[in-house]
Known about the structure:
It comes from Levilactobacillus spicheri DSM 15429. This is histidine kinase. InterPro entries: HAMP_dom, HATPase_C_sf, HATPase_dom, His_kinase_dom, HisK_dim/P_dom, HisK_dim/P_sf, Sig_transdc_His_kin-like_C, TCS_sensor_his_kinase. One of its GO terms (molecular function) is phosphorelay sensor kinase activity. This protein is of the alpha+beta class. The protein has 3 domains: about 10-150, 2-Layer Sandwich (Beta-Lactamase), CATH 3.30.450; about 210-295, Signal transduction histidine kinase, dimerisation/phosphotransfer (DHp) domain (Helix Hairpins, Orthogonal Bundle); about 300-450, 2-Layer Sandwich (Heat Shock Protein 90). Helices cover about 50% and strands about 15% of the residues. The protein has 9 helices and 13 strands. The strands form 3 sheets. The protein has a 6-stranded antiparallel beta sheet with strand order 2-1-6-5-4-3. Helix 1 runs antiparallel to helix 3 and helix 5 (about 270-300) runs parallel beside helix 9 (about 415-425). The relative contact order is 0.06. Residues about 405-410 have low confidence and may be disordered.
Amino acid sequence: xxxxxxxxxxxxxxxxxxxxxxxxxxxxxxxxxxxxxxxxxxxxxxxxxxxxxxxxxxxxxxxxxxxxxxxxxxxxxxxxxxxxxxxxxxxxxxxxxxxxxxxxxxxxxxxxxxxxxxxxxxxxxxxxxxxxxxxxxxxxxxxxxxxxxxxxxxxxxxxxxxxxxxxxxxxxxxxxxxxxxxxxxxxxxxxxxxxxxxxxxxxxxxxxxxxxxxxxxxxxxxxxxxxxxxxxxxxxxxxxxxxxxxxxxxxxxxxxxxxxxxxxxxxxxxxxxxxxxxxxxxxxxxxxxxxxxxxxxxxxxxxxxxxxxxxxxxxxxxxxxxxxxxxxxxxxxxxxxxxxxxxxxxxxxxxxxxxxxxxxxxxxxxxxxxxxxxxxxxxxxxxxxxxxxxxxxxxxxxxxxxxxxxxxxxxxxxxxxxxxxxxxxxxxxxxxxxxxxxxxxxxxxxxxxxxxxx
Length: 454
């Protein structure tokens, strides 16, 4: 089995790509120039052969001197040009410089051309001409072409080699320059990953390349979101520990009081037991809210069309006997359909009514309204309480956040109710917002999506 290829760096990939590109370009240039030069020389040889053939037709060459005269008149090099004459009686006369003999038995032709290679003599352009009783076999030497090609190819190879050497040095520098921001970004990410419990710093964000700049920006956004979650979790653990520590300390303090003074002062036992019961109930509510919040974080909800007006009428009718404030519902008599989960919407409305009840005077009304549009249904709970300062409205849906801690300590609650409501609203694909009520108080608005019209 073939071993998997080791991952390559930027520099390796760029060097390999550049080398392949340069070699390909060099090969294309060599082939293009060689083919162009060869074709040009072939056309030249064909023109020379045509002129020589015209001279041969007018001049009957019978000896070497006549051939030299015809050859020089055609402007050809007599050392690279010769003819063979096939006579009518089958004999062959050759006119070669230096009275050399020619053997064409081992020659081979280049397909689709007039080129022929003669052993020990080289490459020639051949042309056949018949005049009278004679057949002239004309051979024009291509030695100049081959010499030019050898020189040209050698020059191109040297040029490509030098270009490749200089290009690799340039590519190495370029690759290091390109990979440097990526390496720095990776090292910073490794350092950040090595300390997951610490708030992660921002990663370096180079100005270029643009892709690395965008990647670093995305990483920093991801780190910022992670830091926010980490900070919220730390704050959540700290607040939960604080909220649980208080009832536990009260319970243990009253138990110690019973142990120390219960025998001699039995009257402290009922009072201490009352405190223990009250604090244990408070701790139970806190744990239940934490469980609700945990389940809400992991819940998967199947939203169905439901009549929000009917649900609101049922909740208001059930809740009115439990509170002193007068409750009223402003909703159409016809069904108001929205997408949601019935149990969750029931819990949302109940939690908002609990919140309005806690922070409203006993004689001030609480109003539940339903406002509809073509795409949405908005459920409002308006109270006449002290209201929420504008600077606190952004944070009231966070876990354990309570407005005016000194006053909130006098009101029962764990600071988790609105956080649970916010999470339940998100699970129902809705939005929740809080605004100022007139003349005072707050309005909590939950906006849900209307079901698609069939």
